[in-house]
Amino acid sequence: MIITSNIAEQETVLSAAKAMCAAARTAPKTKGIDRIDSMVVTGEEKDALADKMDQLADELSMGFFHRDANNVRASQAVVLIGCVSAVNGLNEACQFCGFENCKATTEAGGRCFFNTVDLGIAVGSAVSIAADYHIDNRIMFSVGRTAMEMKLMGDKICQILGIPLSVSGKSPFFDRTK
Fold it and tell me: Most CB within 10 Å of its CB: which of 52, 75, 77, 110?
C-alpha cells in the first residue's frame, strides 16, 4: 500500500481535529459543569463559512475578516468550540460578569464569566493537541463570530471560537497582513 502525502496529511488533520474536540470535552470546567460543545467543519461547509466571513467583513466594517476568510480557505479543517449560555449560581459572591447576581445577568442577556473562562480553557486544551500533531493553527474570533451568525452550532451556543487547521509547506497563519 502507498499512501501519498496529501492523503496522509488530510487524514492527520481530521484525526487531530477529532482529538481536539475530545480535549475540549475533557478540559476542566467550573464546578464540574460541562457547557462546552465542539464540531469539525470541512469541505463545502468550510468554504461556505469563509464566504460568509467575507460578507460579514463588509457588513461589519471588519476588514480582517477577509484575511481570516482566506486563512479558512487555505485550511483543511476548522474546529469550532462554543459554550452554552447559562449561569453558575454564584450570585452576589461573584459579580465577575458585571451584574449584581445571576438573575440580573440572565435578565439582561449577559454572559456568565465562568462560561467564558471554561471556553478559554477548552480552546487551550484543543490547540495543545494541534501542537502535538504539528498542525498549524490559529484561534480566531472572526471564525467564531461568523459561525454564530450562521448558527452552525445551534441556538443554545452563546460564544464560539474557531480554529482553522493547516498542513502545508508554510503556515498560512504566519506573516499575515492587515
Answer: 75
| Contact (Cβ atoms closer than 8 angstroms) between residue 139 and residue 163 | yes
| CA separation for the pair 157, 43 (Å, rounded) | 23
Cα dihedral sign, 105-108-111-113: negative
User: Which residues, other chains included, contact 61 with Cβ-Cβ below 8 Å and sequence gap of 6+?
Assistant: none
Within 8 A by CB and 6+ apart from 143, the residues are 49, 53, 68, 72, 78, 80, 160, 161, 162, 163, 164
> What superfamily in CATH does domain 12-166 come from?
NADH Oxidase (3.40.109.10)
Q: What is the pLDDT of residues 159-178, one digit of tens each?
A: 999 999 999 999 998 876 65
